[in-house]
Amino acid sequence: MKKTILSIIFLIFIFKINIYAQITLSGYILDTDSKEPLIGATIIDSLSQTGAVSNEYGYYRLIVKSPNVAIRASYVGYSSRTFEFQSLNQDTVLTIILPPSVSLSTVTVVANRDNHIETIQPGKVHISCVYIKRIKLI
Known about the structure:
The protein is α/β, with parallel strands linked by helices and 138 residues long. It has helices at residues 2-20, 129-134; strands at 23-31, 42-45, 50-53, 59-64, 69-74, 81-85, 92-93, 96-98. The strands form 2 sheets. Strands 1, 4, 7 and 8 form a 4-stranded mixed beta sheet that branches. A 4-stranded antiparallel beta sheet has the order 3-2-5-6, with no helix packed on it.
């Protein structure tokens, strides 16, 4: 009986240690030039394969269980950035600024007006009086 109680206490103790070993990594993901939040950017810890997505304010929150973390932040049209932390032992705030990956040059649209249309006639349907008399009204 004593061994069973000691085993249960030991398991509860081990379980509590695992709960308190979680570290929160949070912050914002922003554009380099405008400092606008990047909505829907992904943050992935490549070591534990856990991730998060930024909300409408660019805010993310990632809970990691290991003190060693390799974070990769990415967003469509932007260059990815990677951060590595060794012995992370407390909750950390990390604001990530992503630069655009592709810069497009100016696009100019040119068109010529064709004057081939001479008249515009709306659609016309001929309905005979006989046909109208045969239609049943509700």
